């Protein structure tokens, strides 16, 4: 079946850093696939190698061993089909460019004609609820709004896969809830594949259709859990569901096991 063909494939990925006091085995061996249209969350404790994994699978860092392919092609440099959103929104937008120009920049670099660019930018900015702020500068916006701009820029780029590294870790709880709902809406409206990394267990269960649980470093995939919550999610009702509590408790217990070193990799 065509839809079962993986879009992103990570095979026995390993990353050892050469630290000042010897090698640091950040990622032990990670193997997983993401299929087209999936919304996959990766959850693991701080320092377990999540950012290292994302840097390797986006071609920003060369793995020590293993392979990453996107649409069947090996990833060695940042792929055009991938867009990234990081935690540090403050550093990811250009302060001297308006919202419109920040979002347009990668499209310009790609050679999209001006009229088309304008339409795509306006649609993406509207999608994140900032249609009224097209001509403002990032420094005139709150942190949550700046992160919306970063999401709009990634969406406008029309990637095949949107990769997010703890994008909401630095915003307040209410803003975070709004941004979580925004990610699910963008995923559903645009049909983009999403790989979302977080250390927050509740967030991974609320957002994901599937949650990959990582062990502590040297990291492996401890469990690949399907999230069987209804497709329509809502901060109040979904989080109050008994099934939500069961799933989050399960993930929590598994992560505690990982911290004790009692976890084993999922067979693949
Ligand atoms: P996470 O994103 O899950 O918090 P990271 O991928 O940032 O984890 O880090 C995983 C491990 O690798 C940590 O022990 C961290 O100290 C180490 N590490 C990260 N980057 C480097 C680096 N450039 N050199 C040496 N060690 C690093
Ligand atoms: Mg990180």
From TrEMBL:
SMART domains: AAA. It comes from the Bacteria. PROSITE patterns: ABC_TRANSPORTER_1, ABC_TRANSPORTER_2. Keywords: ATP-binding, Nucleotide-binding, Transport. InterPro entries: AAA+_ATPase (IPR003593), ABC_transporter-like_ATP-bd (IPR003439), ABC_transporter-like_CS (IPR017871), ABC_transporter_ATP-bind (IPR050166), P-loop_NTPase (IPR027417). GO terms for molecular function: ATP binding; ATP hydrolysis activity. Residues 8-241 form the ABC transporter domain. This is ABC transporter. It comes from Cellulomonas persica. The lineage of its organism: Bacteria, Bacillati, Actinomycetota, Actinomycetes, Micrococcales. The gene is ssuB.
